[in-house]
Each structure stands twice: as C-alpha cells, then as structure tokens.
Amino acid sequence: MRITLPGWTGRSQVERVELYIRVSLYAILWLILVPAALGGAVIAERPLPVVGLVLGGLVLGVTSTMALRRAMALYPDDRPLPVPSLLALVALSLVAEGLIFLLPEDAQFSASLVVLASLTWGAGGLRDRRVQWGLYVVSPLIVFAPTGILGLAAYGLAMGLFLVFTVQSSLWLLDVVTQLDRARSAQSSLAVAEERLRFSRDVHDVLGRRLSTIAVQAELAAKLTERGDVRAVDQILEVRETAHVALREARELARGYRPLDLDAEVRGAVSLLRSAGIATTAELDGLPEEWHEPVARVIREAVTNVIRHSDASHVRLSYADREVVISNDGLARSAGTPRGPDSGLGSGTGLATLTDHLAPLGAEVTAAPTGEEFVVRVRWDDAAAPAEER
Fold first, then answer.
1. Which of 219, 284, 348, 355 is the most buried (most CB within 10 A)?
2. Are 174 and 275 within one domain?
3. Which residues does 239 contact at the CB level (< 8 Å), separation at least 6?
C-alpha cells in the first residue's frame, strides 16, 4: 500500500525536497525539546518547577521555531541578518538560563538542554560566522553554569556543534537543490533559445537564397525594361516563379516538412536532454527508413515538450512492431498534446499539427498520461507509405 502526504504528489521534486527539509528541521527541534522538558519536569516533582519547565520549554520552542523559519527564509539568497528574531531568542534564552538556578539540582541539566537546543537550533541556520562561533562558545557555558560539571560542559559543546552542523548542512542541501533547479530551468530556456536560433538559421537558408535571387532577377528585369528589351517579360515571370518557390519552401519550413536526418535528430535529442539533467535511452533499431523523417519530427517536438513542460528525470525512445514510443516520467504541465483518444484537443501547433500531418500517411500519433509517465506513440500499419505520400 502506497502512502503519500497531502499535497505531496502535486509538488515538483525540488518542492518535495524543500518540504522534507523544513518539516524535518521543525520536527527534530520539538523531538529534542519535549523529552528534555518532560524529563526535567518528572525529576522536579514539585508543581511550580514542573509548570515552569513545561511553559518555558513551550515558549522557547515557539521562539526557536520562528527564528529557524526566518533563518530558512534567507536561503538560497543572501539577505540581511534577522536581528529582531535573533535578539528575541537570545533574550528569552538568557531569562530561561537564569531561572534554571531556581530549579532543583536534578532538573537543572534537563532544563539547560532545553535552552541549548532552542538557541543553537533556532540561530544555527544563520550564515553569519559570528553567530555560529558565538553559539560554539555559549553551548558549553549553558550547561556548565547551572551544573558546574566540566564533563557535562563538554557534552554541551559537542551537542551545540552537532546541532549547528545539522541545521547548516540541511539548509546547505536545500540551497544546492534550489540552485541546481534554477540551473536546469536556465538550461531549458537556453535549449528553447537554441531551437529558435536553429529555426531562424533555417529561415535564413531557405528565404535568404531565394530573396537574393529575386533581387538580382528584378534588377535585371528593370534594366531590360529601360532598354525596351522584350526579354524583360520573361525575366519578370522568372521573378514570380522564384517568389512562388520561396513561399512554398517557407510553408514547408513552418510545417516541418524539410527533410530531417533521424540519426542526427536522435543524437541531438539525447545530448539536449542529458545537458538538462535528464537521463535518456534510445533504441530505434529496425525502424523502416521510409519512416525516419516523420519519426524524427515527432521526436523533435516531443523532446521540446519534455524540456519546456515537464519535470522528467528519464526519457526513453524505443521502436517495436511498427510503433515508436517516447515516454518520460514527468507529466506535461501545459498544452502541446495532440488529439489522442481522450485528449479532447482541437487543431493547433506542435504535436497536434504533426498528428494532422501524419494521419494521411497512415500513422496515428497519440499522447497521454500512462500511470506516472507521459507517453507519445507513433503507430502505423503495413499499408502506410509515407515516401509516396510526401
């Protein structure tokens, strides 16, 4: 039986890590404070010290939690030190430390642990080195002052070092994960920009050559017209024919009809996905050559959607029995899905356009969630013949 926390499945991987770290830090703090306070209360026995320990532990715990929350808000960016919350925690810790001397001797050690844990855990997440060294100095004194035992002072120092290290390392991990996610987002944006640059180069290659030809032909036609040469009419007709060719090529480019090399497209897709931190496997052996170009166009669009609209960590491209499958383990977040059996989408761009284009060739393109994966399928029957249809 699989158990998930409320709101867990709707979060991204980074959001899950952040939630896990935050909840763990809060939980550990109270798991330290509650046993220490209750243990001291049991030892004290008398009503007044018991009430004091419980209320003091509660107040220090709440204050420490608020200070910890402010400290976590500083990550991953450097921000000014939250002086008010730090001063409030220090002031309450000093007051609590003074009241420890009023407790029975047997309960003083437990009470000092409450103060030590609250102060080091609440302020230990601050990046300021002065605060961290101050905690290292104060930790043994918090235990030694009421007990007067050097061994317990050493224990207090070790505990202070451990608590500060735990908070710092946890927030450092959160910082690293957040920065990596930002880097991945930047890589995805860069991949999209590179794709746009590639398209602009294609436009330049297709239209630039034709427009240069039109310019030369038009200039020649103008000179022939000035001289009254009858060849000017033929030259103008050539300009018109070149313009029609340029228009047809521009339409083919916009629709993705330009021939694509499947091997080059797969290599580019694998390289692009891996650069974005997505593990990729490609097994397209045996794919009929006449289907290389249509499949290459689907792969290009599907990979673009993975980069832009999913939190995928693994993508798999495979072929078997007249069917190409492109699956990823991060469900798409936005549009771009073709009209599959249950998608309900009308005509549009991206995979939807490819669906309309490949349908006359005898191929069916579907894209839909399957369990925890998003799967794009291209399937055709034996009678399909894309080479003749193109």
1. 355
2. no
3. 214, 217, 218, 221
**Within this chain, do residues 225 and 312 fall inside the same structural domain, yes or no?**
no
For residue 197, give every residue at least 6 positions away whose Cβ sits within 8 Å of its Cβ, in sequence order, or none. none
What 8-state DSSP symbol labels residue 324? Answer: E
* 8 is a domain residue: no
Cα gap 152→150, rounded to integer Å:
5
Q: Which two tokens stand for residue 300?
A: 């290009």
Token pair in block for residue 246? 């340029």
What is the domain extent for residue 337?
262-389
Q: How many CB atoms lie within 10 A of CB 196?
A: 10
Say if residue 78 is in the same domain as residue 140: yes
Burial class (CB in 10 A: 0-12, 13-18, 19+), 362: middle
- pLDDT tens digits, 156-211: 889 889 888 888 888 888 888 888 888 877 877 787 787 777 777 777 766 776 77
Does residue 5 lie within any of the structural domains? Answer: no
- Report the pLDDT value the prediction gives residue 316, as an integer from 0 to 100: 92
Q: Where is pLDDT greater, at 339 or 182?
A: 182
Segment holding 365, helix H or strand E: strand 363-370
Please answer whether residues 52 and 114 qualify as being in contact, where contact means their C-beta atoms are separated by less than 8 angstroms: no
Whether 283 and 382 map to the same domain: the answer is yes
Record the tokens describing residue 332, joined without a space.
Answer: 């798409």
Q: Which of 203, 226, 255 is the last residue of a domain?
A: 255
Q: Are residues 148 and 191 in the same domain?
A: no
Query: Which long-range contacts link 222-228 to residues 24+ away (Cβ below 8 Å)?
Result: none
Instruction: Quote the crossing angle between the two packed helices 150-203 and 262-275, to the nearest 10°.
Output: 150
The verdict on 219 and 177 lying in the same domain is: no
369-383 residue pLDDT tens: 887 788 999 998 865
pTM of the model: 0.51
Shared-domain flag, residues 173 and 308: no
Q: How many CA atoms lie within 13 A of 301 on its CB side?
A: 25
Which residue's structure tokens are 């699956």?
Answer: 327
Q: Domain of 341: which CATH number?
A: 3.30.565.10
372 versus 4: the higher-pLDDT residue is: 372
Provide the number of structural domains found in the chain: 3
Whether residue 272 sits in one domain with residue 214: no
The 3-state DSSP class for residue 369 equals strand
- Residue 51 amino acid letter: V
CA dist 212 and 39 (Å) reads 88
